[in-house]
Amino acid sequence: MRAGDEDAFRQVYRAVQPGLLRYLSVLVGVHDAEDVAGETWAQAIRDLDLFLGSDDAFRGWLTTIGRNRALDLLRSKGRRPILDVPEEEIVGRADGRDTEADALALVGTAEALRLIATLPPDQAEAVLLRAVVGLNAKAAGQVLGKGAGAVRTAAYRGLRSLEKKLQPEV
After folding, report:
1. How many domains does the chain have?
2. pLDDT tens sequence across 29-53
3. What pLDDT, on a 0 to 100 scale, did the predictor assign at position 167?
């Protein structure tokens, strides 16, 4: 990708963009998420020579850039994160390889994102980064500026809250 290989970039973009876009949609709303994602990719391409690491590290690095761009936008607009994600604008769905993704698969993507957005912010971001973006606890912690244990705890608490919300009332 660094050498200008368009096919490599296309593969990376297709693998990373859906999760990044869902994450940004929760932070800034669907109308601004595309713009923030574009700014994120533009900065990543400009700074690509500074990046060293694996595929997972790249996903975390790019998500950190996206989070920073999203927070900049929110500060500039003086507003709180919102969620207005029509399902047709969400690209892809969470994969079913782990229990976090299985929990999200119980409801549609848009409804899952709406439910996640109702969690306390630290739990919502931890769940999004772990289950939607696909980062491990260490990489998610780097994005959030927290330790891996704090991310695991926040994600666990968030998933437990979501589980309770999804339980049928008896």
Report:
1. 1
2. 888 999 999 999 999 999 998 888 8
3. 79
Q: Is residue 41 part of a domain?
A: yes
Contact 63, 133 (CB under 8 A): yes
Domain-located, residue 86: yes
Residue 1 forms part of a structural domain: no
DSSP state for residue 120 in the 8-state scheme = -
Owner of token pair 């980062």: 135
Structure tokens at 9: 């970039």
Q: How far apart are CA 100 and CA 112, in angstroms?
A: 12
For 63, the domain range is: 6-166
Instruction: Report the alpha-carbon distance of residue 122 to residue 17 in Å, rounded.
Output: 22
Which position has the token pair 């949609």?
25
Measured in whole angstroms, the distance separating CA 136 from the mean position of its chain's CA atoms is 12
